[in-house]
């Protein structure tokens, strides 16, 4: 059966009405551009005859009721359906605290955007005939009330039943906030990277692999990256309020012979009112605030450099994270000591043979059919 549809992904909106914006000297996100940038994106998407829009979490600055209310009202005006999942910023506390909504509130705000059953934080729905979306809640609270990325047992049991009922020719898209596949070297083990990973990612990956699911959409990391694990592609999309202010438009094709592929295009917001040179200003903003993060990266495992040695390398790393966020980064740190050179160059967008593999922004992903179990690979 042939199948073709087009959709978009916009992630980590961090929507903040002007009167709710937190003024903090070290604020990393340009939340003041959230609404004007979103309006520019939506104006573009409304011209494309989309079938649907996916938003994988961090819809608001920090769970403010008025920001959730503004967003739901705006999304309801779109000519195509939108589906969301919560991010860690959307429900920062289990119970309402006067400034943020609570756990049980989220589905009631977004009952028109996937959560027809408002009694739980996850859902499944038919997007189109033969196309199913599974929206998962990867945000949990431990016994001390600290947020963590995890799928609890109840949700996993529910997911197991949903996956067992997938029709043979049904295409399944999975969306959640936390990363399931590593997008950075050793991400699941590094103290700075693992907070963006799902703690029980191996369990979810095995369930998806057993069910033949191949496409997962995430956010949280604020980078443009496409990663693959044993035939599963995870497409994570950078943040609306962080350089390079990206969004994606994707086209799925399946021909009558059962061959199927996903075309990925990425776009940028170049300017908004009051920020006419948004790309340049935002990159500079990120570079100006990179020092503490890069110092940790240098002084923590695996490099463990003394602070005085780390300080020597920091000027060359000022825009390191901006290049990562932009996607398809290629690095040359041949002037660094060997261990540091090898470490930072390992973040380059290369394949196992060291050749450039620039698939993070514009690519065609070949997907296996239900019958053919050949390995997937980007073109």
From TrEMBL:
Matching entries from InterPro entries are given as: Calcineurin-like_PHP, CNP_phosphodiesterase-III, Metallo-depent_PP-like, Pesterase_cyn
Give the keywords, sorted.
Answer: Hydrolase, Iron, Metal-binding
Keyword check for ATP-binding, yes or no: no
Q: Which residues form the Calcineurin-like phosphoesterase domain?
A: 5-223
- The source's domain of life comes to Bacteria
List the Gene3D superfamilies hit by this protein, alphabetically.
Answer: 3.60.21.10
Task: Report the sequence similarity comment from the record.
Answer: Belongs to the cyclic nucleotide phosphodiesterase class-III family.
Family matches, as PANTHER family = CYCLIC NUCLEOTIDE PHOSPHODIESTERASE CBUA0032-RELATED, PHOSPHOHYDROLASE
* Record-given protein name: Metallophosphoesterase
State the species of origin.
Trichocoleus desertorum GB2-A4
């Amino acid at each position: 059966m042939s199948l073709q549809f087009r959709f978009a992904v916009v992630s980590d909106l961090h929507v903040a009405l002007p009167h709710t914006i937190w003024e903090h000297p070290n604020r990393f996100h340009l939340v003041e551009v959230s609404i004007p940038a979103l309006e520019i994106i939506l104006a573009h998407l409304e011209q494309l005859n989309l079938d649907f829009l996916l938003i994988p979490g961090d819809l608001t600055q920090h769970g403010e009721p008025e920001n959730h209310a503004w967003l739901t009202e705006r999304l309801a005006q779109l000519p195509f359906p939108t589906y969301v999942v919560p991010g860690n910023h959307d429900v920062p506390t289990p119970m309402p605290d006067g400034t943020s909504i609570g756990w049980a509130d989220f589905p009631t705000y977004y009952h028109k955007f996937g959560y027809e059953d408002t009694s739980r934080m996850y859902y499944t729905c038919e997007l189109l005939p033969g196309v199913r979306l599974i929206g998962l809640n990867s945000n949990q609270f431990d016994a001390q009330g600290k947020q963590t990325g995890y799928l609890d047992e109840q949700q996993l049991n529910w997911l197991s039943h949903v996956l067992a009922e997938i029709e043979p020719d049904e295409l399944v898209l999975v969306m959640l906030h936390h990363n399931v596949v590593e997008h950075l070297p050793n991400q699941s083990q590094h103290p700075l990277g693992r907070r963006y990973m799902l703690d029980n990612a191996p369990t979810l990956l095995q369930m998806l692999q057993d069910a033949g699911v191949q496409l997962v959409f995430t956010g949280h990391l604020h980078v443009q990256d496409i990663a693959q694990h044993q035939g599963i592609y995870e497409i994570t999309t950078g943040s609306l309020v962080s350089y390079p202010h990206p969004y994606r438009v994707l086209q799925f094709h399946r021909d009558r012979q059962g061959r199927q592929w996903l075309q990925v295009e990425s776009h940028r917001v170049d300017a908004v009112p009051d920020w006419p040179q948004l790309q340049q200003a935002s990159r500079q903003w990120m570079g100006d605030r990179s020092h503490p993060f890069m110092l940790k990266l240098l002084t923590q495992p695996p490099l463990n450099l003394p602070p005085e040695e780390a300080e020597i390398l920091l000027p060359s790393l000022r825009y390191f994270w901006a290049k990562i966020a932009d996607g398809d980064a290629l690095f040359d740190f041949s002037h660094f000591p060997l261990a540091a050179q090898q470490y930072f160059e390992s973040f380059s967008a290369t394949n196992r043979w060291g050749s450039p593999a620039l698939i993070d922004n514009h690519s065609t992903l070949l997907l296996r059919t239900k019958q053919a179990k050949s390995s997937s690979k980007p073109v």
